[in-house]
Amino acid sequence: MRVRVRLLLLRRLADAGLPVVAALATTLLVQALLPAATAVATAAVVSAMRREGEDPGALSHLATPLALLGAALLVNVALKALLRPLATLTKIRIDGAHRLRVARLAMGAGTIDTLEQPRTQDLLRQVTREPSVWLEKSISDGVLGQLRTVVQYLGLAATAAVLASFAWWLVLVLGVPAVAVRLLAIRRWRRHFRIWSAGLPDHRSAGYWTEVSTAPAEGKEVRVFGFADWLVGRQQRHVRTHLGPVWADDRRAGLGQWLPTVLMFVPLAAVYVIVARGVVNGAATVATEVAILTAAWSVYATLISLDDVVNVAGAAPVVEAYEELAERLGAVSRPAPAVLGPPVAASTGATAPPVLRFEKVVFRYPGADRPVLDGLDLEIRPGEWLAVVGLNGAGKSTLVKLLAGLYRPVAGRVTADGVDIHDPVAGGPAAWRRRLTVVFQDFVRYQLAAVDNVTFGAPGPVDAVALEKAVTRSGLAPVLERLPRGADTPLSRTRSGGVDLSGGQWQHVILARACYAVHTGARVLVLDEPTAHLDVRTESEVFDRLSGTRNGATTVLISHRLSTVRGADRIVLLADGVIAESGTHEELTAAGGRYARLFKIQADRFVQGYDDRLEGSTLDGESR
Ligand SMILES: Nc1ncnc2c1ncn2[C@@H]1O[C@H](COP(=O)(O)OP(=O)(O)OP(=O)(O)O)[C@@H](O)[C@H]1O
Fold it and tell me: Could you list the residue ranges that cross the membrane (predicted)?
């Protein structure tokens, strides 16, 4: 085991607080010294008994050693009672601090590209796992194991000193094989946990399929498509791929168990025989024999108890994974803001919407061979209502994520009032994001009360006026009226008194969140397919109200329904990684380009009663 990992584990003791650690360490130390004290006290009792035999009636010979032995036993019992709550408190504090550290690390990363990578997800799984099988160890298991190991070695030194006082060779004969057994165990468990960790991608996949098999939403499809057997087979395959090598290692280790057994018991038996013969020959007293036997056994009991070896070896991959994670995420992270809330103009001092520019932006997802955006230039004027259209996969959502600073361009830059949004001097993307609000296409349905879903994490008290405007203008008011506890109803059936909303109703909630942000200071409103779940009539009403709620903010709207974008100040068509067309609806339709062809297809289809989305069409104006 690398010394550095052991030191890192010990450093985490600070998370439990000095008084608790001091109490725990003292308790462990006294407990570790007890075997040596017990050996000496036992020898003293036996010796006193012999003198008692020679001088009957002189009970005083026996009183002191017996009191010492009794005290040692009592202290042992008391320490055991004290140890459990102290250890539990230490573990709770260390694991709590660890979880907080990981959360800060994950949230502190300004961009999400590293977070999305499979390796990062595996590392996160490794560092956040709650031990569910005995093979898994938490960080606090390792910290406590390491502390106990250090203290135990101090106790061993005391016991070894007692042994050496009778015969120095006893320390060598007993100590060397016992240390060898321990080193073998450390190697075996280190290898074991390395094999376990190597299978984590399969562990993750098995976990995914387990979740799919139990989640209600997925449960619908599992039943309708009838792939339950396939799903179980798939989950089992991942479990076997992960655990097969672990079980093979267990078998191998079990077969090799003869070596530690021989190393443990042969020297101990030899010492017992030699000391017993010494007593028979008169070379040693019974008291000496008892002391040696007691001390020898305690050396063995300490060195061959493998709990802490397993705990430290099991926690080592967690420490190593945390270090790798910190390196990956730390390079792009800054401390997470204390409160992640909607933008507040006052906090940035900004009141006017900024001039936004994409300057020759090239962006490629990690591992992809083709760029999504390829030298894209775009200026968005303050207060402008800009619509972005394009076919599936053209890169519209990617453009939104770049605007929100969730990714860094591979080349070029995105600026607000001429300043790169990733410029750390200006506060980086975290500061920039407090000036904008985004409705994502794949928005998240938080299991919170409706009102909390709208004012989500806002710093300070809820702004009632802004909330009312947001609820009215987003069309959420009629939805709230029908909820059993109105705005306080939890939006999840798994919460007590909670309800599930339909896709369209959820979209009203998310729109209300965006409106609330605009009324509390956001100057840029980005809407990625904000009405995809709404029926055409509701959509049109929502858009009418939204245009009145923009409050002077710049609005970037992505939509497949061209009927919703025709009122925009400007429409840009994204194709082949660049802005292929730009202008008002009238200009673009008059130009007779791709937009005009798309609009005509949708208009014709709408007249014929089809949905008017882009997916079924190509930019050349042909139906697929
Ligand atoms: N996180 C990601 N990692 C890797 N590739 C991605 C990721 N997100 C999107 N892509 C790829 O980038 C391309 C553009 O995707 P994007 O979601 O930006 O398109 P879009 O224009 O918004 O599409 P749609 O109209 O279907 O919503 C697609 O080829 C997609 O597969």
Answer: 20-46, 58-79, 258-280
Residue 220 domain-assigned (yes or no):
yes
Are 443 and 380 members of one domain? yes
A 10 A CB-CB count for 183 gives 12
Point out the domain boundary residue: 279, 298, 330.
330
Contact 428, 108 (CB under 8 A): no
Q: How far is ligand 1, taken at its centre, from the CA of residue 400, in Å?
A: 11
Domain assignment present for 612: no
Query: What b/e string do you get for 474-491 counting C-beta neighbours within 10 Å, with b at 16 or more?
Result: bbbeebbeebeeebebbb
Q: Which amino acid is at 536?
A: V
Q: Domain holding 66: CATH number?
A: 1.20.1560.10
Percent of the chain predicted with pLDDT > 70? 89
Asked whether the whole model's pTM tops 0.90, one would answer: no
Domain match, 55 and 159 both: yes
pLDDT in tens, 260-273: 888 888 888 888 88
SS3 (DSSP) at 388: strand
In a domain, 618, yes or no: no
Q: Is the ipTM of this complex over 0.95?
A: yes
Q: How many CB atoms lie within 10 A of CB 19?
A: 8
Cα(303) to centroid(ligand 1), Å = 57
The residue nearest atom 2 of ligand 1, judged by CA position, is 365
Q: Any residues with Cβ below 6 Å from ligand 1, and which?
A: 116, 365, 368, 372, 390, 392-398, 441
Examine residue 616 and state whether it is found in any structural domain, yes or no.
Answer: no
User: Which tens digit of pLDDT belongs to each residue from 139-157?
Assistant: 999 999 999 989 888 888 8
Q: What is the pLDDT of residues 9-60, one digit of tens each?
A: 999 999 999 999 999 999 999 988 888 788 888 888 887 777 666 665 555 6
**Using 50, 70 and 90 to split pLDDT, how confident is the model at 172?**
confident
Q: Return the ligand 1 atom nearest residue 614 CA.
A: 25
Give the range of the structural domain holding residue 168, as residue numbers without chain letter.
Answer: 3-330
